[in-house]
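[Automated response] Your request has been received and processed.

Submitted sequence:
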Amino acid sequence: MSRARERESSAWSELVDLYGPLVAHWCYRCGLDTHAAADCVQDTFASVVKSLVSFRGQRETGAFRAWLWTITANKIRDHQRRVRRDADPVGGSTALRSLEQLPDPSLVPDTEPTNPAQLDQLFARAVEQVRGEFETRTWEIFERSVIDLIQTAQVAREFQLSPAAVRQVRSRVLRRLRQQLGDIEL
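Generated structure:
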């Protein structure tokens, strides 16, 4: 996140690769078509570029995601208002059918419409982005402990480490993942 604030192009690419699919999912869930969703994703990240400097994570899971949802929801509402404003006025039953097909800005939920599958995909993208930053052995310890849900003592025996060392590896990788997801600043 701090690299993105400094406008490093690789950090921005990572941020868009990480969160772009989730923002698009939110747009689809709120009734936008493919083209409108693509525009909304672009508008959302343009706004993020301008306001990322003011974002302050609260050291809680999903803080950045909640902030991003607020921006996205506002961009979806802006799009829906534009569509309603630009609708061609016609009369009769044709007009009524056209009006009924216009998106209703009040249908954008207050809370982010993210389902568990979307969160799993977001986590998987974050894992792939940070995986190369760690030695193979460190990553294997993390996988056995966190992803495979093997007890710390068993992982320690497998890798001939102390349980404290396993917890330290797990903590270090999870902290980096939280940083990648924008939930903490290091």
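Summary generated for your ticket: The mean pLDDT is 83. The chain has nine helices and no strands.
If you did not submit this request, please reply to this message.
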